[in-house]
Amino acid sequence: EKGLRVQDKGFLNTAVIRSEITYIDGEAGVLRYRGYPIEQLALHSSHLESAYLLIYGSLPTREQHLHFETEVMRHGNMHVDSEEFFRSFRYDAHPMSMLTSAFAMLGSFYSEANPSLQGQKLYTNGDKESLATMDRQIYRLIGKATTLAAMAYRVRQGREFVTPPVGLSYTGSFLYQMDHLGEEDYKPNPVLEKALDVLFLIHADHELNASCTTVLQTGSSLVDPYSAIAAGCASLYGPLHGGANEAVIRMLVSIGSPENVPAFIEAVKRREKTLSGFGHRVYKTSDPRSFIVRKTADEVFKVTGRDALLETAMALHDAAMKDEYFIKRKLAPNVDFWSGLIYRAMGFPMDFFPVLFAVPRVVGWLAHWRQMMLQDGGVKIWRPRQVYVGAGKREYVPIEKRG
Ligand code: SDX
């Protein structure tokens, strides 16, 4: 392996693609979707409008937006392709396990999406039919993301699945499928509906994070997009990544109260504990999303009431931000530090929080997957090398002669 060099563990400082989708400046704390600052999109756009922007590269016209939204909702609001599947889970299955497997299962349902069955150039030859097939899978996966998540939630409660009425927003339809218990006049709370839309928008993409890299690594073999998204969902599940929002709440509950924060900080500095929700591979000053989440939390708490854990979270945040140990390591709150408090205040169960990260992130995964399918020169399978440091050549020893 002449000239091969192991990049530091974890792909540190390794770029594997050129992308036009999302720009991050870790030193300046900047995040832009196709050049638009995340702060402007959070204020003026919606999750589905930003989804169109991320996937197709420009803000949609009114007509394009209406078509996209209609198709996403049309493909999303059905259960026939997943009802029996969800009934097979144990009552206490982790919803991320259910979601991950449900995405893979969908691939078996939609054979039109499978290059192994329809031909390797299904997505890469860029003609009208190929683009239309790709769009249909994109609509369906974004639409189904909320439906599958709601089904996982209802399975855990032993409740029937509900089909939302036409005309609700993306997050309104999601909340309806989660919370509807048969009331005639059920309407999602508009403040929570909007807050969830902002949270979905800022979680939609984050360039080559672990889960997006997993989607591209998997998709590079020309597998169907449902299997590639399932792989990304599995990666996001981990507590170092999308599972951190659940880990933050477990951490805050274990700390118990602001008085216990100093002792917890000392335990982190002794490396006995991890401060979940802090630190980031790219952001070395601040995660711009954390400010948007913090502001959204105040709006939600006006409706739901403040969460008792907020005091502990604020005490922990303030203590860490002025402690040399964290300052020296450039550790600041990331998107996960405050988001769990909102989801908890909205009444979601703790192990459902990573699902609320995965649902919107399907957009970013699909944007990068589509970019890879349409890249000049076609798709190259991702196959990195290694530097071999194992044993040299040796002869086989029969078991009776082994020590
Ligand atoms: C997400 O990549 C993305 O973009 C991800 C994401 C996205 O939108 O897709 O932004 C979403 O995953 C956000 C991160 C959520 N994860 C957590 O909050 C888990 C807690 N954070 C850490 O596990 C850690 O900060 C990572 C995993 C986020 C980043 O790890 P790195 O870049 O590999 O950094 P590192 O482990 O090399 O840490 C550098 C130093 C080390 O100290 P030294 O060994 O040099 O003395 O900082 C320390 C680490 O021990 N450190 C922490 C810490 N994070 C890093 N110490 C205490 N608590 C922490 N949270």
TrEMBL record:
The lineage's top-level taxon is Eukaryota
Key word Phosphoprotein present: no
- Keywords of this entry: Transferase
Q: Which family does it belong to?
A: Belongs to the citrate synthase family.
List the protein's name: Citrate synthase
Species source reads: Rhodofomes roseus
Span within the entire protein?
A: 55 to 457 of 489
